[in-house]
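Supplementary Methods, section 5.1.

A reviewer requested that the exact input to the structure prediction be made available. We therefore reproduce it here, unchanged from the version used in the analyses.
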Amino acid sequence: MSLQKILIVEDEPDMALGLQDNFEYEGYEVVVARDGEEGVQFANAEKPDIIILDVMLPKMSGLDVCRHLRGEGLKTPIIMLTARSQEMDKVIGLEIGADDYVTKPFGIRELLARIRARLRNTSQTNSEIESYSFADISINFKKYQATKSGSPLDLSTREFELLKYLVKHRGEAVTRDQLLDDIWGIEDYPFTRTVDNHISKLRQKIEGDSSNPKYIITVHRIGYKFLG
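The structure derived from this sequence is encoded token-by-token as follows.
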């Protein structure tokens, strides 16, 4: 059985070496990229199971790396490393497709726990619902493909995950905190507006009239319910 592979994108040598030593001790295969451009190259060439991505990088910022990889359709989980002064970067990172963040300085046990949780979640996601259809929309969650009235429907990775979660909980009211915890992998994250923004974009793509939705319904003071 092959080892799970972690790509570290970190330009601080001591930090990169410390992470590499700890991850290898825990039984992971590790690849290290020293700048953003190399991070993009290694993400495509090495096919890691998860990416640990610093925000502040030479040549190409961590945010730009994340945006570029998600734009290419890469589904690999990304955990971003941010400084305490980079609160807005956390919000932007989640908006553009990062799965989680850890604030420096952090404990290695916390980071390892988040890595295990994200890898476990990815494994569970891959083994669940493969396809679903409602109205004129057909979705293949396994292949990340969707159509509306027979034409390709362009959904982001996060939108596929949101829709899949809502389908799994069809008819149930799910809270914004549930969505943040189960999809973004973040507990007690204050920016629940992140969920609203993604739901709004998803509605614009699947609803006939996004201002009067039929499938993703707002449940006042709670969250959302899927009726597709």
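The CA atoms of residues 120 and 214 lie 33 Å apart. These observations are discussed further in the main text.
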